[in-house]
């Protein structure tokens, strides 16, 4: 009896300790495995193209909590870059479409006789200018692909803003006419000299007119 009591005296506390330790280990395992499973699920969603995937609210201040917050910050940055990329592609498509449309309209007008021979030289000059602008846009794209977040400094020059407005309007004449729109341009002064980036101002004017049409 004494021997049995002695064994129970040692065995019961030992068994209780094992049960407590096992429960504590299971608690720790679950506390670690749950956020890790969450991370795996989040990364799987990202791999399928879901850039809105995020880790849940993380109140932990240990390494796992810091890792989850870092993952969320990285996802925010990725989503921001993707939005910028889509906006950039949209802007580029818009800027490239306008000169191509102008060139195509003028060439068709000369081929089908809509533009008389005596005016063809003037329109060929516009086609040449539009082609040069296309070339500059392509060069800008090539430069942008080599940039690492640095901003280009615009090259400023003196030019007649009124003449640029006339050139842009003439360049979009076929697009404007196709919508049965009549445009009357009036200036307070015949010549208005400005110091700015001609290409950038031309892009603004083209976008404004194109959106208006």
Description:
The protein has 6 helices and 2 strands, in the order αααβααβα. The termini are far apart. The protein has 213 residues and is mainly alpha-helical. The protein has helices at residues 2-47, 63-111, 117-146, 161-171, 173-178, 198-212, and strands spanning 157-160, 193-196. Helix content is 74%, strand content 4%. The longest helix is centred in the middle third of the chain and has 49 residues, at 63-111. The mean pLDDT is 77. A two-stranded antiparallel ribbon has the order 1-2.
In sequence order, what are the helices and strands, one letter per element? HHHEHHEH
Overall mean confidence score, pLDDT: 77
Using only CA atoms, what is the Rg?
34 Å
Output the strand order for the largest sheet: 1-2
- Quick one: overall form? rod-shaped
Fraction of residues in β-strands: under 5%
Report how far the terminal alpha carbons are from each other.
104 Å
Which sheet architecture does the biggest sheet show?
A: 2 strands, antiparallel
Structural class based on helices, strands and sheet pairing = mainly alpha
Question: What's the arrangement of secondary structure elements?
Answer:
Elements: H1 2-47, H2 63-111, H3 117-146, E1 157-160, H4 161-171, H5 173-178, E2 193-196, H6 198-212
Antiparallel strand pairs: 1-2
Helix pairs in contact: 1-2, 2-3, 4-6
């Amino acid at each position: 009896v004494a021997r049995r009591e002695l064994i129970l005296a040692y065995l019961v506390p030992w068994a209780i300790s094992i049960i407590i330790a096992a429960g504590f280990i299971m608690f720790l395992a679950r506390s670690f495995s749950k956020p890790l499973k969450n991370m795996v699920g989040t990364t799987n969603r990202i791999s399928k193209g879901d850039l809105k995937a995020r880790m849940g609210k993380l109140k932990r201040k240990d390494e796992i909590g810091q890792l989850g917050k870092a993952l969320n910050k990285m996802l925010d940055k990725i989503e921001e870059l993707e939005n910028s990329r889509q906006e950039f592609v949209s802007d580029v498509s818009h800027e490239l479409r306008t000169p191509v449309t102008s060139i195509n309209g003028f060439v068709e007008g000369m081929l089908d006789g809509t533009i008389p021979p005596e005016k063809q030289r003037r329109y060929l000059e516009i086609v040449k200018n539009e082609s040069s602008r296309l070339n500059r846009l392509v060069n800008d794209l090539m430069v942008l692909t080599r940039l690492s977040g640095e901003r280009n400094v615009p090259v400023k020059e003196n030019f007649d803003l009124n003449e640029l407005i006339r050139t842009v309007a003439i360049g979009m004449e076929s697009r404007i006419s196709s919508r049965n729109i009549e445009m009357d341009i009036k200036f307070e002064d015949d010549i208005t000299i400005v110091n700015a980036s001609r290409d950038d101002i031309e892009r603004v004017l083209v976008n404004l007119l194109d959106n208006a049409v």
